[in-house]
Structures are given as structure tokens and as C-alpha cells.
Amino acid sequence: MGKRMSLWGIGGKLAAGTLFYAALAIGLHIATYPMFKITLIPGVLLVYAGVLLLLVGIPLWVLSAATIVEDYEQDKLITRSVYGRFRHPLYAAFVIFIIPALSLFVQSWLALTIPIAMYTIFRSLIGEEDAYLERRFGKTYRHYRDHVNAVFPTFHRYQPPADGTKKKR
After folding, report:
1. pTM of this prediction?
2. pLDDT of 138-158, one tens digit each?
3. Are 98 and 91 in contact (CB under 8 A)?
4. Burial class, 129, CB count within 10 angstroms (exposed 0-12 / middle 13-18 / buried 19+)
């Protein structure tokens, strides 16, 4: 089958690309302050919105991480827990909730582009992880991929195929 993918998947590459872009965006914000400061919305509302996003994102990240750490050694496709709603909930926690929250705290239009850049980087890298999972789990992964969104939540809970294919967690 070949070498097993790391528990971290594309996470390191995604983090490096996002941090590089974030440093550029925040650096430009600081260098040109107050040009990109958000003034249309009161700062306190931006902070409250950021806190609300963190109240969803951090538990999603913790639950995702706990699930994958618990199941990774079993070498099975994880489709239970939050993995029944997102194929990549660890990345989703950052792309949809945590990075947007931190961007709101900075109160900069440029900072609000960081989650967009992160999602773009994610889309350019995730094919590597998806290809690995398809090689590793074949038809089971293809069914899962076809029924569960990568980062944005699927509103129905994933059900494994009913055709007698052995269920993989």
C-alpha cells in the first residue's frame, strides 16, 4: 500500500502557508494603519462576533482532534462524531471559525482575507490527503467523499453504504 500518511495530514503545509499570508496581511495593515481598519462596525461587536466564533470553533477543533487521535492507530476511516458532518473538521474549525474569529479581533479588512487565503491554500493541498485516503480505503472513502462535504458542514449525518460494504469508522 505504501507509506502511511502522518496523523497531521496536510496540516503543517496549510499552517505554514496561512502563517506566511497572515504575516503579510497583518504587516501591511500595521504599515498602512488606519487605512484597512474596520470602522463601519463598532469594535465591540467585532469582538463579540469573534468570541462567538471561538465558542464554536474551539470545541469543534478539540472534538475533531480527540476523535482522530483516538482512532488513528486503528487505521480505519473515521466517519463518526464530527467526521459524519465534515470530512476535514480539524481544518474546518480553523477555516470557518478560529481564523475568522482572530481576524475579527484585529479589526482589519486585510485580516478578514486570511480565512479566504487559508481556504484557498486548503483547496490546493487537500487533493494530496484525499488521494491518499482513496488509495487506502477505496470504495468506502469514495462513498464517504461523495456524501460529506470537505469543510462546510453536511446537514445530514453520514450513513455508510447499505450494500454490504464493511463499515469503517
Report:
1. 0.90
2. 999 999 999 999 999 998 889
3. no
4. buried
Yes or no: say if 154 and 148 are a contact pair by the CB < 8 Å rule.
yes
- Closest CA relative to residue 119, chosen from 157, 92, 83: 92
Residue 108, SS3?
strand
Contact 138, 166 (CB under 8 A): no
d(CA 85, CA 38): 33
State the burial class of residue 87 (Cβ atoms within 10 Å of its Cβ: 0-12, 13-18, 19+): buried
What is each CA distance from 137 to 17, 52, 58, in whole angstroms?
28, 36, 29
The C-alpha torsion from 58 through 62 and 64 to 66, rounded to 10°, is 180
Describe the crossing of helices 11-31 and 114-147 by its angle, rounded to 10 degrees: 150
When computed from its CA atoms, the radius of gyration of the chain, rounded to whole angstroms, is 18
Q: Which amino acid is at 101?
A: A
CA dist., res. 6 & res. 19, Å (int): 21
Size (the chain), residues = 169
pLDDT tens readout for residues 5-19: 888 899 999 999 999
